[in-house]
Amino acid sequence: MSVPILLVVTLAMFALGAASPFDPAARYLGDSVGNATTEDLERIRHNIGADQPFYVQWWNWLTHAVTGDLGDSLSQHQPVLAVISERLGWTLLLVTVAFVVTMALSLVTGALAAIRHGGWFDRAVTTLAYAFEAVPVFWLSLAMIWLFSLTLRWFPAGGVSDVRTGALSFGGVLSHLVMPAVALAVSQVPWFVLYVKQSVRTAMAEDYVVGARARGLRERTVLVGHVVRGALLPFITLVGSRFPELITGAVLVETTFSWPGVAAATTEAGVALDFPLLAALTTLATAVVLLGNLLADVVYAFADPRVVTG
Amino acid sequence: MKFWTSVSIVVVAVLAALVVPALADLDQRLVDLDLVLQPPSWQHLFGTDALGRDVLLRCVYGMRVSLLVGLAAGVCSSLIGTAAGALAGTWGGRVDQLVCRVIDGTSAVPQLLLGILLVALFRPSVTAVVVAVALTHWMVTARIVRVEVMSLRARPFVDAAISGGASRSWVLARHFLPNVFPHAALATTLMVPHAIWHESALSFLGLGLPPHLASLGTMMDDGRRALFSGAWWVSLAPGLFILIPTLAVSGLAGVLRDRVEHRRRSAELAW
């Protein structure tokens, strides 16, 4: 199911590219376009295949992509695959750390808020979650840069390497990682907290929880063994479906903090109208979203034996 | 109480965006290089930006642009969504399958990336941003309308109309559309803050509205650059101008959703 969607999405992308008012030949030449004659432009168009209909261009791109050749990036002056493989690790690092922080924070606070439903902690968490859900992540990032980098000087404002030497070190990367990871996590936590709270509250009303209490089990055993376990199931299925929001957050956070990942490369490719890179990154992101959906289904079937796969 | 607080914030925001630019004689493009990056003071409550323009005044201008873009994108996405959803729900079968596949496909592309792609390919402009936001946000409305139409199809008044010889288009126009209207309208209201957020995100990345056009997003982009000159106030006000109306609209949407649900439930009970 995912593969046809991916094919149609890439085809649609090439159709959009063909409908675009930009001339790929002029884009290819860059600043020297003023010196080129009409014949030159025609020849370049022919050489890069831009004179063919979009579905032919798409087919050529696809058949090359299968062999690992995604074309050359116009703005980075190297193969698209090299750009992606160079930057993907940074994005994975950032997103994984942010995701682990998000999970830990939202599971603990969401469950605590649900257990003491209506208490001061619950009210504070819910209010904060609604407020932070409306805070644009780029604004949050700017506020963090101002407070922690420019005013308190605790963490560097962007990049990954040491400003003076340009060297990469473990401690250096770690201190550069803190702010983007926290910003990305804080942008994801509100939704997860509200969701965990809701599913824990639903689980607390289940018969098996009432039954466990009636059997006189310890409160802690009931909460950890019955409530949280029951609430985790609907929760994990939604984790995979939050990948689009995570990618959106990563694009904004990486760009704001000049993090050298693939998400920031998307912005750069967009600004520079680097279609080969943009097409590859959009395809990659779409594949990740589809993979997230698939993962959610698989994990769900794994965690709940009642679900029949097939 | 929550309802009226939200309503008044929205009304004040819309009125300010409409009235202030007409009243304030000061052109927001008025550049005063003697007043570059002034911190907040009584003359300039939120300070001045890198070209000496009053941030608060420019924000009110910016909000007008953002509101217009948000409203236009919200209405466009609702129109596309309602059309797709009604088509799928009324005709069913192959049409339904096709629409569902398109919804799945579009939902799989992260919205911001599709937005970046569209704006990059078609030059930053108001139209490009509105189209980008509309094309990435219509799926929610389509899903809601589709399900709603399908549940309407099972109701006796629709059976009555069809057995009375009504065509599908007639049933669609006279029975389905009026009934899904509240849902579509609610979806539009909910979409506006999303669209404003989206516009700001794209403009912030330099892939939204043209930089000379004051919108909350382009101002935020200015604010990022000013931040490193130590001017935190340039990005403060645009953020608040996105945040507060968003909170108000989501509060409002919550109340409206309860009412629509309630009305539907009582309608079902009465029936």
Automatic annotation (TrEMBL), chain B:
Pfam families: BPD_transp_1. PROSITE patterns: ABC_TM1. Keywords: Cell membrane, Membrane, Transmembrane, Transmembrane helix, Transport. Residues 63-253 form the ABC transmembrane type-1 domain. The keyword ATP-binding does not apply. The chain crosses the membrane at residues 65-90, 176-197, 230-256. SUPFAM superfamilies: MetI-like. It is found in: Cell membrane. It is a multi-pass membrane protein. Its main location: membrane. Belongs to the binding-protein-dependent transport system permease family. This is Peptide/nickel transport system permease protein. It comes from Kutzneria viridogrisea.
